[in-house]
Structure formats: structure tokens, C-alpha cells
């Protein structure tokens, strides 16, 4: 029986020792969520999408790249003001146009862009799960001391523990809700960016196939 009591005491000590780290982690996560909302608003105000301009830029870049002017093709692509990931992927696609393996290179560029967008969403997706988990831990940990205080007749101590329990629950749910909302919006944005990148890549490839290198027609005629 004494062994059982010792095990219970050890578990109680370890669980109560986690309370302050959990509270600190929740406060850090909540501050990060507020910054996340600010970055979402900033990105929303700076996002710009013009499909007609994207088509024009891709056609110009493909013409320049096939004539050996890769630097000018990259500069032409940079004129399309979009998200930094989209602009970077478009520059990589423009550099890949002048070559025999341009199709494989463009596919690799698109895959890297998709992986980069997924990596950017990973912390937010983790916050969706970790926030409520920490909130639940912050709820359950003070309940033990609260029950002990109740048995001892210390109502004030019990009330303090219950306040901590309910507060951590609210903060954890708030963190999960904010992260879920930001993740949903950004996931839709990034899916649209990937759709535009795939369309731009297909457009540049089709333009490159339609245009033959200079001299090919004269050699055939000779």
C-alpha cells in the first residue's frame, strides 16, 4: 500500500510541476496567435492577382528565354507583383525555359513551391492541435489541488485553482480557433497560388513549343 501511495505522490508532483510550463506555453502561443492575425491582415492587403497580366508576363518571359535572354525573362516575370513565393517560383520557371530539360525543371519548381507552402502552414496546423491540448492540461492539473483544498475546507485556494483551470481552457480554445481560422484562409490562398503557378508554367511551356529556335527555318529551307 505504501508503494501505491508513493507512486501516486510522484505522479501528483510531476503533474503539478507541469502547470507553470503549460501556462507559459499558452501565453507564448496566444501572443504568437495575435502576431499571426496581424501577419494575415498584412498579407491580405498586399496580395494582388491579375490573370490577364500573368498571361502577358508569361508570354513575354517565354519569348525572351527562348532567345537566350534569361536575365530579361526573369526581370519580366518580376514585374508581376504577387506573393514572394509566387514571384520566386515564376523566376525559377523562367530560368528553366531555355534548355532541353525545361519541362522536368518546371515540374521540380512547382513541387518545391508546393512543399514550401506546406512548410509555411505547418506551424499553424500544429497550433490548431497544441493549443486545445495545452488548455486541457491547464484545466486538469489544477483540479487535483482544488479537490484537496475542498477536502481541507480551504475555499479560497480551491477558487484560485479553478480560476486557473478555466482561464487556461479559454486561452487554449482561443489559440486553437485563431490558428484554425488563419490556416483555413491561408490554405485557400496557397491553393490559388499553386493553381496560378501551374497555369503559368503550362502557358510558358506551350509558348516555348510553338516557337522554334532561330535558324531552324532557314536550315530547312536551304
Strand proportion = under 5%
| Low-confidence parts | 214-222
Helix content: over 70%
How many domain modules? Answer: 1
Distance between the termini: 103 Å
By DSSP (H or I, 4+ residues per run), the number of helices equals 9
Protein structure class: mainly alpha
How is this fold's topology laid out?
Blueprint (H helix, E strand, L loop, with lengths): L1 H16 L1 H28 L4 H16 L3 H9 L5 H12 L6 H39 L2 H10 L2 H56 L5 H6 L1
Please supply descriptive tags for the structure shown above.
mainly alpha; 86% helix
Structural summary, described in words:
This protein is mainly alpha-helical and 222 residues long. The protein has one domain. It contains nine helices and no strands. It is elongated.
Structure in a nutshell:
The chain is mostly helical and 222 residues long.
